[in-house]
Amino acid sequence: MPxxxxxxxxxxxxxxLADLPQLHRSMGEFYTHESLVLDDGVLGALHALIENPNYGxxxxxxxxxxxxxxxxxxxxxxxxxxxxxxxxxxANPAHAAKSATIGYCILTFGYSVxxxxxxxxxxxxxxxxxxxxxxxxxxxxxxxxxLCREQGIRMLELEVRRDNPKARGLYERLGFQQHSRxxxxxxxx
Length: 189
Hints:
Order of helices and strands: EHHEHHEEHEH
Shape: globular
Structural class: alpha+beta
Strand content: 15-25%
Number of helices: 6
Number of strands: 5
Largest sheet: 5 strands, mixed
Helix content: 25-40%
Strand order of the largest sheet: 1-2-3-4-5
Radius of gyration: 19 Å
Distance between the termini: 59 Å
């Protein structure tokens, strides 16, 4: 019996500057959910990250079982150029990729002498509530772990809120462990 499309893993695609509008929308949902402030500083940092892969990578998470949604043409006719500029029109090459987008994740890079090399932080990972509990988060994390192995990352870390035992359980099942040292932060600016 063939497997249903809902069993297909989500795909990760490295985000480009063309993806900023979709990332901004998804980040708005995530920041609202987490009670964070999505301001120009955050958006500027995202723009800088996408432009400089030495900082890390932003990824678009796409659903394999959610087909692109075709926006109906308005009653007024549009030229081919206008249709191609419309982000929801099928004539726009980026339409298919964006229409199946369900979330995003951001991976940033660091370096540690103690850990003998490159490190990475899953800075943000967001799937909307309707897409949680179906194994997609596990599959995304497994893909990120594999990517880190391929890129020679020595340690991958993430943050989890104390009041989110479901996420913590997922991370621990994948091998993430609480470190014996506490992380302290200082903001020089």
